[in-house]
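Technical note accompanying the year-one report. For the benefit of new consortium partners, we illustrate the data format agreed upon in the data management plan: each record pairs a sequence with a structure-token string. No post-processing was applied to the example shown here.
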Amino acid sequence: MNCAALGRAIVKATAASEPGKHSQAQARAVKDVLYSPGLGYTENLRIDPALRVPLATVLADFAGDTHEMLAGLDSQYVFKIGPADDPWESSGTYHLAVGHLVFRNVVRAVSQDPQAYAILRLAETRYEAKQLAAVPGDATGTPLSLPPTENARALGILDGLTDRYARDRAWRTAVRDRLLREPAAQGGYQEDPAAYLTATWLQGLRNMPEAELANRLRAQGVDIARTWTQARNTDESTRQALVAEVDLSALSGYREAKS
């Protein structure tokens, strides 16, 4: 089996039967792939070009697990990282975890392909928008601040892992072109908060010079948090404090991934 056929087989074997619903066998298959010989612990990992988009597609399909393994804040994703640890069920689907070095090696290698990276970025954006949309309207304190700061950390780590590619103009151009092919029909926040947050961010990329893309990606956590708090009519002092916290979280994640 060549790499292109292998990639198609992996996607077919792990794709959810309905959005966000995976079986134990599917989650186990993803974990086995990530821990397979030639991936996982390999330093300076290089993945065959034919496998990069399929693996990104798989990680995007498991967006909730990908987000948690990027952000690194949920204890379940710390205690169940061993190759022999089985996936676990929660909220009607099965989840998986792998060691953060294994996961980051794979994400970094996959993201060398700008199309694969854009797939990961869009999946993370949509997942984070849903997380923000689920925050109750009367939330204050940690219930209000934790989701956007966690989101910013995940994005910061993704930016740090892919910083070497973002310096290449052709890569940045291909990423932006792929992101802007996504439908961005935008209704109001009250109508569909998650869609509104995603579409607003994508619209902000449309007239942006290519040279500014890397900076705009690094500011995504702050941009979405600002849009979200404005749509929620959060008071100005709370908004400023939260945006500052989000900015710090993104920077911390970025530096961690670069170290």
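Partners are asked to follow this layout when depositing records. The beta strands are 88-90, 93-95.
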